[in-house]
Design brief:
Helix 2 runs parallel beside helix 4. The protein has 31 helices and 20 strands. The chain folds into 5 domains: 193 residues, Hypothetical protein af1432 (Orthogonal Bundle); 139 residues, Beta Polymerase, domain 2, CATH 3.30.460; 94 residues, Beta-grasp domain (Ubiquitin-like (UB roll), Roll); 171 residues, no CATH class; 75 residues, ACT domain (Alpha-Beta Plaits), CATH 3.30.70. It is an alpha+beta fold. Strand 5 and strand 6 form a beta hairpin. The longest helix has 21 residues. The strands form 5 sheets. Strands 1, 2, 3, 4, 5 and 6 form a 6-stranded mixed sheet that branches. Bound molecules: manganese (II) ion (MN). The site of manganese (II) ion has 4 residues, from loops.
C-alpha cells in the first residue's frame, strides 16, 4: 500500500470512534488539499513531505482534540511552505481552521537564541501570547514532537539547536499545560542530542537491567492487583521505570549514580472514583512500608496545571523504594494530556467550543488553585486572556515585555533612556514606521538614533503606554531646565534642613560636604539640589541621610562608603577605588571557570549563589558549567573518586560591577496577617527587585515565606537578610539550599 495512504488510514482509524461522517469527509478534503499543495516536496528523511503533517495530525488526534485542530494540523505547513494563503484555507475549511494555521505559522517563523532564564520565560510567555487560540500552541507542540522524533535526519548543528529550544521552551510549555506524556518524550528526545553520552549511559544501564526491572515491576503489580481484587476494588495497575531525563536530572543535580537514585520506579493505580483512591492508598500502605514525608495529596490540592493524584513512596520487602500514584480515569486523562484532555470531556456536551469558552475553563481551573505557581501560570495565561502585555524582540533577539498598545517610544525607553532621548525614528521588522505604530507580539523593533537628536517631543508623553517611558520623558524635560531645578531644589532642601535643625553652612562646609555628597550619591551640591528639584530624590530623604552623616562625622567615626547600598566594595578591589573606579570588563555571567575559556555558565537552582559566595562549578555534559555555592549539599562530592571529582572545577567571580543575581531566601515566623505584606514593604524600601514572593502556613501554625530577589552581591544580600530579620515575629531568615 502507498505509505501516504497507509499513514492517512491510521489517522482515520484514530478518529473513527468519535468523528461524524461529515467530519471524516472534511478531514479527507483537508488531506487531499495538503497533499496536493505539498506535492513534490520531500523531508530530510527522503519521505514525501505530507507524511509529516499526517503524523502531526495523528498526534493531535491522539490527544483527542477536535476536528478543527486535526484539520489545522494537516494544513499547518501550507502557508509556510506552499502557495496557500489564509484566505484560501478560510474559504475551503472555515475561518477557525485558517486562523489556527496562521497562528502556527507565526510561531514557526519565530527565531530563538538561547538566553538566560528570564529571557526564556519571556519567550515562553510570548509564544503563549501569540497563540490567541490555545489550540495553536497545542498543535505547535505536536509539530515539534514529530520533528524531534525525526531529528536524526538533520545536521548536528540543527539537532543541537532544536533540542535546546525544545528543552527550554516547548517542554516547559507542555508541562505548564499539564501534558506530562508529551513533556517526557520531548525531554528525552532533546537529551539524546544535548548530552548523548549522559543519555546513553542511562539508557544502557536501564536496558542492561531491564529484565530485573521487569521482574520487579511485575511482582509489585500482581501483588497489588491480587490484594485490591480481594478487597473488591476494580482497578488497573501499571508499572514503569521513570523517564530518562528525570533520572538524568537527579543524577547530575544531586551528583548521584544511577544506583543511588532513590526511586526509579513509578506505579499507577487507576480506579473509578475518588473514595476508592483513598481506599487503595490504605491498602498500599498496609502492604508496604510508607516512606515518611513522601505522601502527597494532589486530589484535595491539585497542582497548578490541574494535575490530580495521590502520591506515596513505599518500600517493598526487597528494600527497593518505589512511587505509587493513585487516581481516577478522569484525572489520568488530565495528567497525560493536560489542557488537551479538555476537548475529550467536552466533546459530547456541546460539540465545538469557541476559544473564549476554553480560556474560561482554563482560568476557572487555575484560579481555584491557591499556589504561587498557579498565580504565575494564571498571569502568563492572562497574557492571552486579557491581552495586557505585548512581547517584542530587540534586533539581538532579546525579548522585551511592554504594556499592550505600546509603540516604539515605549520600546526605546525600555532599552535605555539615552536610546529614547536620542531616537529619531524606528523600524519594525526592517521597515521604517511612524513612532505611534502599535507593536504586535513577535515584532522585531529597531530604534534609529542620532547623537545630535533634538530629544523627546512633548507629544511623546501622550503617545506612549508605559509609565517608564512617560517618567523618563518627563525627567528629560525636567533635567533640561537645570537652573530652575537647582533653584527650587535648594529652597526645598533649606526648608527641610531648618525643620531638622541643621544649617545650610554645616552642609556646605568643606570638611563635611564630600562625605555628605558621597552619602547621598551626588557629584556636587548643585546636582543634589537639581535632583531634589526635578523629583529624582526628595528633600526629606536627602536630609535624613545628611543628618546621619553629620552625626557620624561629629562622633569622629570612620565613614564607610560601603554597607549603605550606595557603593559596594568588591573583595580584592582595594579600598578607596570603589566609587570612581571603572569596573573591569566582565564576562556575561560574572564567573571565570578555571582552565576553560568562554563556556556556558548556569547558576544552580538549588543554592542560587551571588557574588561574594565561595563557589564551585560542575561540568554537566551538554549544559556547560553549573555553579553551586561551595557549601551547597549538592556540591559535596567524593574527592577520592577520580571520575566524579574530575567533573568539578574551580570557578571564581570576576571583579567589578556585576549584573543582578537572583537568589532565594526563606523566612520563618508565627503565621499572622500581613506578614507577606511586611516582607514586600521591606524589600521595596530597600529597592530590591523581587522576582517571586510566596507565603504558606505550615501545620504547626507557623508561616514560611519564600522570596526570590535580585541582588548585586553578598553584601547587599546580607543587608536584605538583616532587614528581613527585623520584621515583627520573624525568627529566622535562611538562604535556600538543596
Ligand atoms: Mn511542521
Amino acid at each position: 500500500m502507498d505509505p501516504i495512504l497507509e499513514q492517512y488510514q491510521q489517522l482515520v482509524e484514530r478518529v473513527r470512534t468519535y468523528a461524524t461522517a461529515a467530519e471524516l469527509e472534511r478531514m479527507e478534503r483537508a488531506f487531499r488539499y495538503a497533499d496536493a499543495q505539498h506535492a513534490g516536496q520531500k523531508r530530510k528523511s527522503g519521505e514525501p513531505y505530507i507524511i509529516h503533517p499526517l503524523h502531526v495530525a495523528a498526534i493531535v488526534a491522539e490527544l483527542g482534540m477536535d476536528m478543527d485542530s486535526i484539520l489545522a494540523a494537516l494544513l499547518h505547513d501550507c502557508i509556510e511552505d506552499t502557495g496557500s494563503t489564509h484566505e484560501d484555507i478560510a474559504k475551503l475549511f472555515g475561518p477557525t481552521v485558517a486562523n489556527i494555521v496562521e497562528g502556527v505559522t507565526k510561531l514557526t517563523r519565530m527565531q530563538y537564541v538561547t538566553k538566560e532564564e528570564e529571557q526564556m520565560e519571556n519567550l515562553r510567555k510570548m509564544l503563549m501570547a501569540m497563540s490567541k487560540d490555545i489550540r495553536v500552541i497545542l498543535i505547535k507542540i505536536c509539530d515539534r514532537l514529530h520533528n524531534m522524533r525525526t531529528l536524526e535526519y538533520q545536521s548536528t548543528k540543527k539537532q543541537r539547536e532544536k533540542s535546546l529550544e525544545t528543552m527550554e521552551i516547548y517542554a516547559p510549555i507542555a508541562h505548564r499545560l499539564g501534558m506530562q506524556k508529551v513533556k517526557w518524550e520531548l525531554e528525552d528526545l532533546s537529551l539524546r542530542y544535548l548530552d548523548p553520552v549522559g543519555y546513553e549511559e542511562i539508557a544502557k544501564e536501564l536496558a542492561a537491567k531491564s529484565s530485573v526491572h521487569e521482574e520487579f515491576m511485575h511482582g509489585v503489580q500482581s501483588k497489588v492487583e491480587q490484594r485490591l481484587a480481594a478487597e473488591g476494588i476494580t482497578c488497573k495497575v501499571y508499572g514503569r521505570v521513570k523517564h530518562i531525563y528525570s533520572i538524568y536530572r537527579k543524577m547530575y543535580t544531586q551528583n548521584k549514580t544511577i544506583s543511588e537514585i532513590f526511586d526509579l520506579y513509578a506505579f499507577r493505580v487507576i480506579v473509578d472514583d475518588i473514595p476508592t483512591c483513598y481506599n487503595v492508598l490504605g491498602c498500599v500502605h498496609d502492604m508496604f512500608n510508607p516512606v515518611l514525608g513522601r505522601f502527597k495529596d494532589y486530589i484535595s490540592t491539585p497542582k497548578p496545571n490541574g494535575y490530580q493524584s495521590l502520591h506515596t513512596t513505599v518500600i517493598g520487602r526487597e528494600g527497593v523504594p518505589f512511587e505509587v500514584q493513585i487516581r481516577t480515569q478522569d484525572m489520568h486523562q488530565t495528567a497525560e494530556y493536560g489542557i488537551a484532555a479538555h476537548w475529550k470531556y467536552k466533546r459530547g456536551l456541546n460539540g465545538n467550543l469557541g476559544s473564549e469558552e476554553t480560556y474560561e475553563w482554563v482560568r476557572k481551573l487555575l484560579e481555584s488553585q491557591q499556589d504561587t505557581d498557579a498565580e504565575e501560570f494564571v498571569r502568563s495565561l492572562k497574557v492571552d486572556l486579557f491581552a495586557d502585555e505585548v512581547f517584542v524582540f530587540t534586533p539581538q533577539g532579546d525579548v522585551k515585555s511592554l504594556p499592550a498598545g505600546a509603540c516604539p517610544i515605549d520600546f526605546a525607553y525600555a532599552i535605555h533612556s539615552a536610546v529614547g532621548n536620542r531616537m529619531t525614528g524606528a523600524k519594525i521588522n526592517g521597515r521604517i514606521v511612524p513612532l505611534d505604530t502599535k507593536l504586535q507580539n513577535g515584532d522585531i523593533v529597531e530604534i534609529i538614533t542620532a547623537k545630535n537628536a533634538h530629544g523627546p517631543s512633548r507629544d511623546w508623553i501622550k503617545l506612549c503606554k508605559s509609565n517608564e517611558a512617560r517618567n523618563k520623558i518627563r525627567q528629560w524635560f525636567k533635567k533640561e531646565r537645570r537652573e530652575e531645578n537647582i533653584a527650587s531644589g535648594k529652597v526645598m532642601l533649606e526648608a527641610e534642613l531648618r525643620h531638622m535643625g541643621i544649617t545650610l553652612s554645616q552642609v556646605t562646609a568643606a570638611e563635611n560636604l564630600p562625605a555628605i555628597l558621597k552619602k547621598v550619591g551626588q557629584g556636587s551640591f548643585d546636582d543634589l539640589c537639581a535632583s531634589i528639584g526635578y523629583g529624582g530624590t526628595t528633600a526629606v530623604k536627602a536630609v535624613a541621610r545628611i543628618k546621619d552623616e553629620l552625626a557620624r562625622i561629629a562622633k569622629g567615626q570612620e565613614v564607610h562608603a560601603a554597607g549603605d547600598g550606595l557603593g559596594v566594595i568588591y573583595p580584592g578591589m582595594g579600598a578607596g577605588t570603589h566609587s570612581q573606579a571603572k569596573a573591569p570588563k566582565h564576562t556575561e555571567s560574572g564567573i571565570v571557570v578555571e582552565g576553560l575559556g568562554n563556556c556556558m555558565v548556569k547558576f544552580a537552582k538549588c543554592c542560587t549563589p551571588v557574588p561574594g559566595d565561595p563557589v564551585i562549578g560542575f561540568i554537566t555534559r551538554g549544559y556547560g558549567v553549573s555553579v553551586h555555592r561551595a557549601d551547597c549539599p549538592n556540591a559535596q562530592f567524593d574527592h577520592t573518586d577520580a571520575r566524579e571529582a574530575g567533573r568539578w572545577v574551580n570557578v571564581s567571580w570576576v571583579e567589578g560591577d556585576l549584573e543582578a543575581y537572583r537568589t532565594a531566601l526563606e523566612l520563618s515566623a508565627p503565621d499572622r496577617d500581613g506578614l507577606a505584606l511586611d516582607v514586600a514593604t521591606v524589600l521595596s524600601a530597600l529597592k530590591v527587585r523581587v522576582c517571586t514572593l510566596a507565603a504558606r502556613a505550615t501545620d504547626d501554625g507557623a508561616a514560611l515565606v519564600t522570596v526570590e530577589v535580585e541582588v548585586k552581591d553578598k553584601n547587599e544580600l546580607q543587608q536584605v537578610i538583616n532587614k528581613l530579620g527585623q520584621i515583627h515575629g520573624v525568627s529566622a531568615v535562611k538562604r535556600m539550599t538543596g
